[in-house]
Amino acid sequence: MKYNPNEIEAKWQKYWAENQTFAAVNNSEKPKHYVLDMFPYPSGAGLHVGHPLGYIASDVYARYKRHQGFNVLHPMGYDSFGLPAEQYAIQTGQRPEDTTSVNIDGGYDKEGNKIAGYRKQLDKIGFSFDWSREVRTSNPDYYKHTQWIFIQLFNSWYNKDNDKAEDISTLVAIFEKSGNATVNAVCDDAIAPFTSSEWNAFAKEQQEKVLLQYRLTYLAETEVNWCPGLGTVLANDEIVNGVSERGGFTVVRKKMTQWSMRISAYAERLLQGLNDIDWSESIKESQRNWIGKSFGATVEFNIQNSEAKIAVFTTRPDTIFGVTFMTLAPEHELVAQITTPEQKEAISNYIEKTSKRSERERMADVKTISGVFTGAYAEHPFTKEPIPVWIGDYVLAGYGTGAVMAVPCGDERDYAFANFFKGQSGMPAIKNIFDKDISEAAFGSKDGFKLVDSDFLNGLGYKEGTYKAIEALEKINQGKGKTNYRLRDAVFSRQRYWGEPFPVYYVNGLPQMIDATHLPIVLPEVEKYLPTEDGLPPLGNAEVWAWDTTKNEVVNTDLVDHLTVFPLELNTMPGWAGSSFYWMRYMDPKNENEFASKEALAYWESVDLYIGGNEHATGHLLYSRFWNKFLKDKGFAPTEEPFKKLINQGMILGTSAFVYQAVQFEKEGALDVFMSSNYFKGSVDLTSDKNILWDNYKEIFLKRGLTKEQVDYVVFRKIHADVSMVNSSDELDIEAFKKWREDYKDAEFICDENGKYIVGREVEKMSKSKYNVVTPDDICNEYGADTLRLYEMFLGPLEQAKPWNTAGISGVFGFLKKLCRLYFDEHNLIVTDAVPTKDNLKTLHKTIKKVADDIENFSFNTSVSQFMICVNELSTQGCHSRAILEPLAIVISPYAPHIAEELWSLLGNKGSIATVPFPVFEPKHLIESSKEYPVSFNGKMRFTIELPLDLTKDQIEEIIMKDERTIKQLEGRIPNKVIIVPGKIINLVG
User: Which residues form the Aminoacyl-tRNA synthetase class Ia domain (predicted)?
Assistant: First the structure.
C-alpha cells in the first residue's frame, strides 16, 4: 500500500460532509466548548498560507476537545461586507455581491479566470467546521439582525446611576416627571437644562432633537478623512503619505454629519472587564491605553474681551501656575471666533495646510513643530494674567476638549513648542514652577519635586498639589475634578455601497427607525459603486431607495413627497458592524425571528477559545465587547464578556514587491508613471535629482500636462505590486502590470539602463492587500493537507511571527510516510496483536502526555517534534503492535486528521475517529525500574549492564564482580576501590 494523500483526504472530507461529523447540537449531556476563529474577508484571490495558521491551531484544539468528550461548536463564516470586497469589485468592474459569491463558493470571474473559492480551500485543509451554521454578513437574513441591533442602540440611553443601558422610554418618563436636571447620563456636552413642563410643552421635533443627544447611537458632526477624488471618507490605514492608498488622491480633514455610537459610555466597564478574561497582557494593555483612563480636572479659561471660554482637561492641575500659553486644535470651533483680524490670513492658511494631514500622521509626527498665534488671549483663572492662544496640529479636535493648557516647564512637547517660537509675538518665556533645573529639558516626572512660584501651591508635590488646585478651581467655578477617558465615540457611517443599509428614513431631517417587523431593508441595485456627481454616497445613485410609511416598503426615489414617502439613509454601516455580534449568531443561525434564541444563548454562553490576529486589538475586539455588554444590559447576551480566552496567532511573513509611482499634489492624484527602484544607483530615494526627471523624461510629463516647475514637486510613493508579476531577479512583468488594473493600462515606466523595471522588496505581513500571498492549494495538491497542517504548526510558537519558507515541507511529508510504514508495507497491513514491549509503551505514553500538555498550553510546534521522535523510536523498536498504533492514531488525529481516519479504518474500526476518547496517560510506563549502567575501569567505560534500580551498593558490587567481562578486564587483579553511585555510575579503580 502507498500513502496517497490526495485520495485519502478527498475520501474523508466527503465522509465528514455526508455524515455531518462535526455538527454541534444546542442541547447535550456533554459539556460544551465553543472554539472560534476570526472569520475571513472573502475578497481577492482567496486564502493564502497565512490564514490557515490560526485556523489549524483552533482546529487542533477543537478536535482534541471532541476526543475529550465535549460538545464542540467550531463554526465558520464570512465577514463579507466592507471595503476590501468593494474595492475588489470596483477594480474588476463587477458587482460586489457577485465577486463575493464567487470568492466564497468558487467559480469564474468576468475574465474567465477560475476562482477556487474560500469554502473549497477551507474544506481542502480538513477543518472540522460545523458548516450547517455558516453565516455571511452580507446576506439579508444575517444583516436583518445587524439592523435590529442598531435600532436597539438607537432606542437606548446609558443610565450612569444604574451603570447600564436602558430603554429610551425610561428617559422620556424622567423628562415628563422632572425634566433633565437630575438625569445622570452619558450624553452630549452642554445640553440645555429644562423642566418637566418645558419638556411636555416641546413640539415632537424638539423632543426628538433632545433625545438624539442621549441615544446610544446618534447623529453628530465629526472630523473625518475626506477624499474628494474618491468621494468618500477613509479610515486612517487607507491613507499613505497624506494621499489615498487607492488612486493617490489628496485627503483632507472635514466635518461631516455621521452616525456615531457611544462606546465611551462603556469605557469603565470595558476597562474593568479586562481583569476577568484570559487574554495576553499585550492585548489588554493595548485596550487599556486606547481607553486611556486618567484623573485630573476640567479647567475653564475665560477669553479676554469675549464671552467665549476655553475648556481643557488636564491630568496635572498642580501645574496650573506654569501655564504660559494655550494651544487649540486647528479645527476647534472657537478658532474662527477668537482669531484677531491681523492673524486671520495666517490662521486660515495653516488650517488649510493641516486639513491635508490625517490624525494618525499628526499623532505620530513628534518631530515637526508648527503652529500659529491667534492674536487672542485667555485669562489665567487665579492670577488673571493674559495667556496667548495658539493653534497647533499636535492637538486633535477629537481628543479631550481639543485644547491644551501648555506648561512647557513640565511637558516635552510644550517645551519644544515654546522654544521653537521663542521671541515671537505671542510666546512668553518659559516659567519654571519646579525646584528643578529645566534649562535643557522639561521636568515631566510626578515625583521628587516641590512646587515653587505657584502661590498657594508652593511647597507641595503632585498629589497634594492636584487636590488643592481642584479644590480652589471648584471654589471659583472655573474647574472641577474629573475622571477622563481617551476613548472616543465610534463613527458608524461609511460613504460606501457595500455595507449594511441603515433601517432609517428622515422626516424633516430627523432620523426615524423602520419598525423591526419590516426588516431587512435590503441593499438596492445601483449602476455604479462610486459617489454621485454631487458628492452623495453611492446609494444616492439608487432609483429605488425611499420609504413609504403607508405601504411599509422601499419604493422609487421619485415618489418622495415628505408626507408619506421619505428619503432613506444614504450611508451604510462600517465593516465592523456585522462582526460585532457574529459569535452569537453562530449559536442559532437558522432562527428567523431573533439573532439567537434565549435557550441557545444560555447553553453556549460565550466563546471559550478565540483565535485571531492582534491587529484587531483596538478595533473589532473593542467593538465586539461593547456590543456584547450592551446586549447583556438589554437582557439578550447571557455574559458580560464575549470571549473567555483569546490567543493571537503570529503573522506569516511574505516578501512584498513595490513599484514607485509619481505623485504631483497639484494634479489631485497619482500619475501613471513608475520608476525603477534601482534607477539611482540602487538608491530608493527617487526624488534626489529633479533635473534628471525633466531632462530625460520631459515628454512623459508633458503628456500629463506638467510643467518643469511642477515636475520639481513630483514625489514618488511606494505601492504594492502583485508578487506573481515579479520574477526571481525582481524584474516586473510590465505588460502584466498594465493589465492588472484599468488605471494602469496606459502607464509608462522609467526603467534602468538595461531596460528593466526592478521592484523594491520588503518582508512584511502576508496579506492580500499587500499582494504578497502564497496560496495553500498547490501545497495541498503536491503534499496533502495533513502535511500543510503539520508544517504550519511546526514553523514555531503559534504567537510568534514566522517567515514563510517551503524548505521544510518535504521533511514533514517524509515523516507522514514513515508513520504509515508502521501500519502497512507496500502490499498489506502489518499491524499485529503482539504484546507491546516496555519500550513501546514508554514511547507511546511519553507522546500521549507531551501532546495533551502541548495542546492545553497551545505549544503546537513541540507536539509535531514529539510525533517525529515517537515514530523514529517505534520504527527502531520494530513496533507494529495494535495496542500501540491504535491509540497513536487518535493522538495524531487533531493534527493530521485524514491519515488518522484512514489508519483507524484500516485497523478495522467503524465510523470516524473524531470522537473516540483520547488515550489516557499512564505514568507507570514512564517510571524506570532498571538502569543501564556504564561500567568503567580506571575511568574508562568498557561495557554496560542493565540492573534493577532497587539494588543496594553491595548487591550491585557482587553482580559486577561475578560478571565475566569484569573478570576478563581485571585479569586476576583485585581493585583497590569499587565506586558505585546507584542509578548513575560503576567505576573500578586499581
Answer: 11-155, 760-791
Position 418 scores a pLDDT of 97
Rg (CA), the chain: 35
From its phi and psi, is residue 631 left (phi > 0), alpha (psi between -120 and 50) or beta?
alpha
300-308 average pLDDT score: 94
- Closest of 977, 933, 914 to residue 70, by C-alpha: 914
Of 337-346, 413-422, 758-767, 956-965, minimum mean pLDDT range: 758-767
One DSSP character per residue, 112-170 reads --EE--HHHHHHHTT----GGG--BTTSHHHHHHHHHHHHHHHTEEEETTTTEEEEHHH
Q: Where a domain ends, among 467, 484, 501?
A: 484
Alpha carbon distance 274, 284 (integer Å): 6
Please tell me whether residues 372 and 401 are part of one structural domain. yes
Could you tell me the sign of the dihedral formed by the alpha carbons of 407, 413, 415, 420, in that order? negative
CB 737 within 8 A of CB 747: yes
| In contact, 604 and 32? CB cutoff 8 Å | yes
Same domain, 345 and 457: yes
Binding residues for ATP are: 768
Per-residue pLDDT of 946-981, as tens digits, reads 898 889 999 999 999 999 999 999 988 999 999 999
- List, in order, residues 6 or more apart from 687 with CB less than 8 Å away: 714, 715, 716
Question: With bands split at pLDDT 50, 70 and 90, how would you rate the model's confidence at 669?
Answer: low
What mean pLDDT is predicted for residues 651-680? Answer: 80
Cβ contacts of 906 within 8 Å, gap of 6 or more: 823, 824, 829, 831
Cis amide leading into 520 (omega within 30) = yes
Record the pTM.
0.84
**Which residue is it, cell 477543518?**
127
> Is beta strand 546-548 parallel, antiparallel or unpaired with respect to 553-555?
antiparallel
What are the binding residues? Answer: 768
In contact, 570 and 547? CB cutoff 8 Å: no
Whole-angstrom distance, CA of residue 658 vs CA of residue 760: 5
Picking from 463, 539, 468, 529, the residue whose alpha carbon sits closest to that of residue 501 is 539
Q: Which amino acid is present at 847?
A: T
pLDDT digits (tens, 9 = 90+) for 102-134: 889 988 877 777 888 899 999 999 999 999 999
CATH of the domain at 32: 3.40.50.620
Do 708 and 694 meet the contact criterion of CB atoms below 8 Å apart?
yes
- Residues 399, 342 share a domain: yes
Q: What share of the chain is helix, strand, coil (3-state, %, to 5)?
A: 40, 20, 40
Least confident among 263-277, 544-558, 770-784: 770-784
Name beta bridge partners: 760. Answer: 658
Q: Please check the confidence at residue 529 and state whether its pLDDT lies above 90.
A: no
The torsion defined by the Cα of 741, 746, 752 and 753, in degrees rounded to 10, comes to: 150
Query: H helices then E strands: how many in the chain?
Result: 31, 37
Distance of CA 104 to the CA centre of its chain: 22
